[in-house]
Amino acid sequence: MAQFGQGKDALGNYGDDFTSINGGDYCCSSRSGSAIIWIRSDHFSMTNATVNNDTGLASQGLVVFGTQAIVKSNIFKGFKVGKDVQIRESFSP
After folding, report:
1. Is residue 6 part of a domain?
2. Fewer CB within 10 Å: C terminus or N terminus of the chain?
3. Which burial class, exposed, middle or buried, applies to 60 when counting CB atoms under 10 A from its CB (0-12, 13-18, 19+)?
4. Which residues pair with residue 37 across a beta bridge?
5. Is residue 45 part of a domain?
6. How far apart are CA 73 and CA 50, in angstroms?
7. pLDDT tens for each residue of 12-40
8. CA 45 to chain centre
């Protein structure tokens, strides 16, 4: 289960664009196969955060569905190669 995530609004839309994370510690996935941070946001940005897979259960650190994402100056610990950050421009619920 994600420690930070976005879902549908009351109308069934994914419309949380311009979401930003600046700093913070995110860790401890309690369910195998889930991302620690799961975002559906165009223009998402994340800086100066630490994402730690200390239980080894998370499949990814950060998954972003959206365009024009900026992810810089973060620390990702305990993820397999290529599983720390995944940015995808399309999303199908």
Report:
1. no
2. C
3. buried
4. 4, 62
5. yes
6. 9
7. 776 678 989 999 999 887 677 789 998 88
8. 10
31-73 pLDDT per residue, tens: 777 899 988 888 999 999 999 998 888 999 999 988 899 999 9
Beta bridge partners of 38: 5, 63
The tally of domains found in the chain comes to 1
Q: Which domain holds residue 64?
A: 18-88
Three-state SS at 42 = coil
Phi, psi of 47 (to 5 degrees): -140, 150
**How many angstroms separate the CA atoms of 92 and 57, rounded?**
24
Identify the residue whose tokens are 């996935």. 29
